[in-house]
Amino acid sequence: MNDDRKWLPSMTALTSFEAAVRHGGFSRAGEAIGLTQSAVSRQIAQLEDWLETPLFDRVGRRVRLNEAGRIYADDLLPALDRIRRATARMTMRRSPGALRIATLPSFGMRWLAPRLPHLSALHPQLVVDFAARSQPFDFAQEEFDAAIHFGTPDEWPGAAMDFLFREEAVPVCAPGWLAAHPLRQPADLLTAPLLSQSSRRDAWARWFASAGVEAGTLPPGPAFEHFLMLAQAAAAGAGVALIPSFLIRPELDAGTLVIPFARPLSSERAYYLARPLDAPVHPALSQFGDWIVDQARMA
User: Fold this and answer.
1) Domain identity same for 148 and 195
2) Which among 135, 186, 195, 241 counts the fewest CB atoms within 10 Å?
3) Could you write out the three-class secondary structure of 8-20?
4) Confidence of residue 91 (pLDDT cuts 50, 70, 90)
5) Range of the structural domain that residue 289 is part of
6) Domain for residue 92, yes or no?
């Protein structure tokens, strides 16, 4: 046996061990990977012989991961996950026009989705899968080619950023709510129920400051993870929400949401297309990147 192979146990043994760790026993591990309980037990016994170290403590018919097993699992399981992700990426690359893009949920629904027919007409060979993600992630650990990011360029280590556009957030409420709660000046909103997006709880404090209103410490109000949930709550009369205007254009046009004060909130944060910094040039991603930047310029 050469020096390389002696450090590589059989993949069946490794996956049996992984399944036993994840599922807490040999029986459920066998169900997960399509082996019998005895087959899993034999594979793990072979692995222990290979390592010359017990990985599980046997107590009657029960097994329990021991300290050596925990140490081995901490190193092994992430490595197996990386193998799976690398294989998935290679499988996806069999189609040169395939892309997987992570997008902020509300951005994807309200800005990106309506523009996709234009992308398909311009590049019919592209096959783009979209998935919702709200936070930055490690491209090396995920199966995405790019992502939509809102913030500043330095908030995503290891990513190159293509600027798309900045947003303007406006206060909005239901017309019926406004009729029942007349507002004459921005300070009147201090006594209104203020609805927030959960990752931007400081937005109202910044809005009051930009309007020249001494707000002090604002009481916490209802918060929603996605802007479209926030818009629905405001349209239902739950209070006043601060929402980027481009995300609620249909509601503003239909009159289900109105703007009580035309005082938009701007910031240095913006939308970007984030790409892995050290990734090889991918023609399909270059086409998508050029398209989305052009769309942002025309918006």
Assistant:
1) no
2) 135
3) CCCHHHHHHHHHH
4) low
5) 98-165+269-298
6) no
